[in-house]
TrEMBL record:
Residues that, per the record, bind NAD(+): 7-12, 51, 97-99, 121-124
Protein name per UniProt: 4-hydroxy-tetrahydrodipicolinate reductase
Active site: 154, 158
Main location: cytoplasm
Enzyme class: oxidoreductase
Reactions it catalyzes: (S)-2,3,4,5-tetrahydrodipicolinate + NAD(+) + H2O = (2S,4S)-4-hydroxy-2,3,4,5-tetrahydrodipicolinate + NADH + H(+); (S)-2,3,4,5-tetrahydrodipicolinate + NADP(+) + H2O = (2S,4S)-4-hydroxy-2,3,4,5-tetrahydrodipicolinate + NADPH + H(+)
Molecular function terms from GO: 4-hydroxy-tetrahydrodipicolinate reductase
The organism of origin for this protein: Azospirillum rugosum
Keyword NADP recorded: yes
Protein family membership: Belongs to the DapB family.
Keyword field: Amino-acid biosynthesis, Cytoplasm, Diaminopimelate biosynthesis, Lysine biosynthesis, NAD, NADP, Oxidoreductase
Domain Dihydrodipicolinate reductase N-terminal: 1-124
Positions of (S)-2,3,4,5-tetrahydrodipicolinate binding: 155, 164-165
Length: 265
C-alpha cells in the first residue's frame, strides 16, 4: 500500500514517515511541504532521520494524491479542507488527525467523504479511543447527577484550545447523556460566573513545557469522584494509529469513519 504524508518534514510528519517505512506491506508514496520550504527537494527518509527512501519532498499536493493509495494529514484546518477536496477528486483514502476544525470545515470534510473513505479522529491512539468509549459509558450511567470537567495539558507550542481530544471526550460524555455538547459546554470560567448549572460539561486548559498530551475526565458527585486519565509519553502512538487507519480504510466504501470503526469499537 502506497501511503503519502502531507507536511512530511514536520515533527508529526517525520514520525509518520518512519512508521510507514517500518510497516510491512506499506511504502512511502511521497510527501509534501509548503511552497518555498527548506525541505523541498530533499529525500524524505533523510528528513525523518532514517535511510534515504528515494523520494523527495514536493509542494504539489494534487500530484501526491494522484499517486498514493492513502494520504495522512496532521496539518491545519484550512489545509485539511483542501486536502479533503483532493482526496475526493482522486478517490484516495484520507486519514485526518488535524484538530481545531470548525463547523463549516467539518461540513466540507463530510461532503468529501461521500466520494472517498475518510478516517477522522481528534486522537489516533488506541488508549485515547478506549477512553472515549469509557467516558461515554460512564456519562450514560451517571447522567447529570455528577458534574463533569475535562482537564487537558499540552506543550507550549500547541495553538488550539481546548484540544481536539478534550472536545472529543466532551462529545462522548454528552452522547452518553443524550445531549449536544455545544448546548452544555463551558470552556472558560473567570470572574464571578455564578453557581454551576446542572448538566454543564466544563473544560480546563494547561499549556507548558514539552507535554505531549495529558487528558483527565472528572466525574464529581456528592461524596465521591471518578477520574479517568490518559497520558501520552510519545507521539509514535499517533503515527501507529494513523497508519493502521489508512490500511483499514483501503478497501472501504466512501464514508466518514472514526477510530472506533478502525478498532472495531
Amino acid at each position: 500500500m502506497k501511503i503519502g504524508v502531507v507536511g512530511c518534514a514536520g515533527r508529526m510528519g517525520q514520525m509518520l514517515v518512519r512508521e510507514i517505512a517500518a510497516t510491512p506491506g506499506c511504502t512511502l508514496a511521497g510527501g509534501t511541504e509548503r511552497v518555498g520550504g527548506p525541505a523541498l527537494g530533499k529525500d524524505i527518509g533523510t528528513l525523518a532521520g532514517i535511510d534515504p527512501l528515494g523520494v523527495t519532498a514536493i509542494d504539489d499536493a494534487a500530484t501526491l494524491f494522484a499517486e498514493a493509495d492513502a494520504v495522512i494529514d496532521f496539518t491545519s484546518p484550512d489545509a485539511t479542507v483542501r486536502h479533503a477536496a483532493l482526496a475526493a477528486q482522486s478517490q484516495t483514502v484520507l486519514v485526518i488527525g488535524t484538530t481545531g476544525i470548525g463547523p463549516s470545515q467539518q461540513e466540507a470534510i463530510a461532503q468529501a467523504a461521500t466520494h472517498t473513505p475518510i478516517v477522522q479522529s481528534p486522537n489516533m491512539s488506541l488508549g485515547v479511543n478506549l477512553l472515549l468509549a469509557l467516558v461515554e459509558q460512564v456519562g450514560r450511567a451517571l447522567g447529570d447527577d455528577f458534574d463533569v470537567d475535562i482537564l487537558e495539558m499540552h506543550h507550549r507550542h500547541k495553538v488550539d484550545a481546548p484540544s481536539g481530544t478534550a472536545l472529543g471526550l466532551g462529545r462522548a460524555v454528552a452522547a452518553g447523556r443524550g445531549v449536544n455538547l455545544e448546548d452544555v459546554w463551558q470552556k472558560v470560567r473567570d470572574g464571578h460566573p455564578g453557581a454551576r448549572p446542572r448538566g454543564e460539561i466544563g473544560f480546563a486548559t494547561l499549556r507548558g513545557g514539552d507535554v505531549i498530551g495529558d487528558h483527565t475526565v472528572v466525574f464529581a458527585g456528592d461524596g465521591e469522584r471518578i477520574e479517568l486519565t490518559h497520558k501520552a509519553s510519545g507521539r509514535q502512538i499517533y503515527a501507529k494509529g494513523a497508519v493502521r487507519a489508512a490500511r483499514w480504510a483501503n478497501d472501504k466504501k466512501p464514508g466518514l469513519y472514526s477510530m472506533k470503526n478502525v478498532l472495531g469499537m
